[in-house]
UniProtKB/TrEMBL annotation:
Family: Belongs to the major facilitator superfamily. Nitrate/nitrite porter (TC 2.A.1.8) family.
Name this polypeptide is given: High affinity nitrate transporter 2.5
Topology in the lipid bilayer: Multi-pass membrane protein
Transmembrane segments: 7-27, 39-61, 68-87, 93-112, 133-155, 161-184, 221-246, 252-271, 315-340, 347-368, 380-400
Molecular function terms from GO: nitrate transmembrane transporter activity
GO biological process: nitrate assimilation
PANTHER family tied to this protein: HIGH-AFFINITY NITRATE TRANSPORTER 2.3
InterPro entries linked: MFS, MFS_dom, MFS_trans_sf, NO3_transporter
Record's keyword annotation contains Membrane: yes
A GO CC term attached to the entry: membrane
Source species, domain of life: Eukaryota
Length: 432
C-alpha cells in the first residue's frame, strides 16, 4: 500500500508539472505573441514526445524495474518544468513543452507498478485508482496554478514574470518526490529486480530484451493502442484547451475559466476508479470477455457525450455536458487498464508502454484539429466525438484464447479464495 500511495502521488505531481502551464496559456499567448497555429503546435509538442518516452519506459520497467525508472524520470523531468520560464519566444517555449512531455511517461510506470503489486481480482481497481488520482492533477492544476500565479503577483511582480516564477513550484515538488520514490518503494512484493536476478529468482535482463517485440507483434495491443488514444488522448487534449475554450467562448476571466476546466480533471478522483472497479466486477462475473465488453460500452458513451458537449452554447449546459463526458472518458481509461495486465504477463511493461503511448498518439492526432484556423474549437470537439464512436467497435479485436480464459479464471478463483481466507483472519488481502 505504500507503493500504491507513492505511485498515485508521484503521478499527480507529474500531471501537475506536465500541464501546469495550460491554465496560464492566455498570459503566455500575450507575452510571447503566439498565434493559434503556434499554440496548437505547443499542445502537440507537450504530448508527442511522450509517445516515444512511454515506449521506452515500458521496456525499461521490464529491464530495471519501476523503482529506478520512476525515480530517474521524476528528477530529470523536474528540470524543464522549473526552467520553462526561461523561454523568450515561440521556438524556445516549444522546446520546453517538448521536454516537459517526457514526464507523461510516468503513467506507464504507475500502471506497471500497481499491476505487479496487486492480485487479479483487484488489479483493475488499483490501476484505475492510482492513474485516476494522478490524472486528477490535471484538474487541480487548472484550479491551483492561477491561484499560485495570484500569490506570485502579490509579491509585486508583473504577469510577464509571474507565470515564469509560478512554474518553479511544481518542478521543485517533482524533484524531491523522485528521491522519496527511490528510498520508500520496491519493485514488487518479493523485492527489487536487481537483487532478485542476482539470487536467481527472476529471469536475467537478456530474456526481457525480446519482450517489446512480443508485445509489438500482438494485434490486440495495437487495438488497445487506438482505444486508449480515443480516451486518454482526448483527456489530454481537453486538459490543454479547456481553460482557453471557456475563456474565449464564454468570455470568462482566467481564474473562472481555470476553475471550470479543473472540474474535468477532478472527476478522476472517482470516475477512473469506477471504470477499473466495474472492469474487475465484469471480469469476476464474465471472465476476460466481460472486461472487454464493458470497455466497449463506456467508450461508445464517451463519444456520444463528447458530441453533446461540443454543441452546448450556454455555460450552464456546457459544464453539465462536460461532467457527463468526463465521467465516461475516465471510466473508459480505467476499463482499458483493467484489460492490459492480462494481454501478456511476460511483457507487461512493453504492453503497458505501447498502449499508454496510444493515449499520446490520440492527443497528437486531435491536436492537429486545433491548429486549423478555419475550424472552431467546438467543431473540432464534435469531429473528435464522431471519431471516438467510430473507434468503439475495435473492442471486438481484443479477444483471448480459451486456454488463457481458463488460466485467468483459475487465478481469479485463487485470488478470491485467498482474500476470503485472509479476511476471516483479519489480514489485509489486497496484495497478491
Amino acid at each position: 500500500m505504500r507503493t500504491f500511495h507513492l505511485t498515485w502521488f508521484a503521478f499527480f505531481l507529474a500531471f501537475f508539472g506536465w500541464f501546469g502551464i495550460a491554465p496560464m496559456m492566455a498570459l503566455v499567448r500575450d507575452d510571447l505573441g503566439l498565434t493559434k497555429t503556434q499554440i496548437g503546435n505547443t499542445i502537440i509538442a507537450s504530448v508527442a514526445i511522450t509517445i516515444l518516452a512511454r515506449l521506452l519506459i515500458g521496456w525499461l520497467c521490464d529491464r530495471i524495474g519501476p523503482r529506478l525508472a520512476y525515480s530517474g524520470l521524476l528528477v530529470l523531468g523536474s528540470i524543464p518544468v522549473m526552467c520553462i520560464g526561461l523561454a523568450q519566444n515561440y521556438e524556445t517555449f516549444l522546446l520546453f513543452r517538448l521536454a516537459i512531455g517526457v514526464i507523461g511517461a510516468s503513467f506507464v510506470i504507475t500502471q506497471y507498478h500497481t499491476s505487479v503489486m496487486f492480485a487479479p481480482n483487484v488489479v483493475g481497481t488499483a490501476n484505475a485508482t492510482t492513474a485516476g488520482w494522478g490524472n486528477m492533477g490535471g484538474g487541480v492544476t487548472q484550479m491551483v496554478m492561477p491561484l499560485l500565479l495570484t500569490l506570485v503577483l502579490m509579491l509585486g511582480v508583473g504577469e510577464t514574470f509571474g507565470w515564469r516564477v509560478a512554474m518553479v513550484i511544481p518542478g521543485v515538488g517533482l524533484f524531491f518526490t523522485g528521491f522519496a520514490y527511490y528510498f520508500l518503494t520496491q519493485d514488487c512484493p518479493e523485492g527489487n529486480y536487481r537483487q532478485m536476478r542476482a539470487a536467481g529468482k527472476m529471469a536475467p535482463t537478456s530474456v526481457t530484451n525480446g519482450s517489446f517485440m512480443d508485445a509489438a507483434k500482438d494485434y490486440r495491443v495495437w487495438a488497445l493502442f487506438v482505444i486508449y488514444g480515443a480516451c486518454f488522448g482526448i483527456e489530454l487534449t481537453i486538459n490543454n484547451i479547456a481553460a482557453l475554450y471557456y475563456y474565449d467562448r464564454f468570455e470568462l476571466n482566467l481564474a473562472t475559466a481555470g476553475l471550470i476546466a479543473g472540474l474535468f480533471g477532478l472527476m478522476n478522483i472517482f470516475a477512473r476508479t469506477l471504470g477499473g472497479f466495474f472492469g474487475d466486477k465484469f471480469g469476476i462475473r464474465f471472465g476476460l470477455k466481460g472486461r472487454v465488453m464493458f470497455m466497449g460500452g463506456v467508450l461508445l458513451m464517451e463519444g456520444l457525450s463528447l458530441v453533446l458537449f461540443s454543441q452546448m452554447a450556454t455555460l450552464f449546459l456546457a459544464v453539465g455536458a462536460m461532467i457527463i463526458f468526463s465521467l465516461f472518458v475516465q471510466m473508459t481509461e480505467g476499463a482499458t487498464f483493467s484489460v492490459v495486465p492480462f494481454i501478456n504477463r511476460k511483457a507487461l511493461g512493453s504492453v503497458a508502454g505501447i498502449v499508454g503511448a496510444g493515449g499520446n498518439a490520440g492527443a497528437v492526432a486531435a491536436g492537429f484539429l486545433f491548429r486549423v484556423e478555419s475550424l472552431t474549437f467546438a467543431d473540432a470537439l464534435m469531429l473528435i466525438g464522431i471519431a471516438v464512436v467510430a473507434i468503439a467497435p475495435l473492442v471486438f479485436l481484443v479477444r483471448f484464447s480459451p486456454q488463457t480464459e481458463e488460466e485467468e479464471r483459475r487465478a481469479m478463483q485463487g485470488a478470491l479464495a485467498r482474500r476470503m481466507a485472509l479476511a476471516e483472519e483479519g489480514t489485509p488481502a489486497a496484495a497478491d
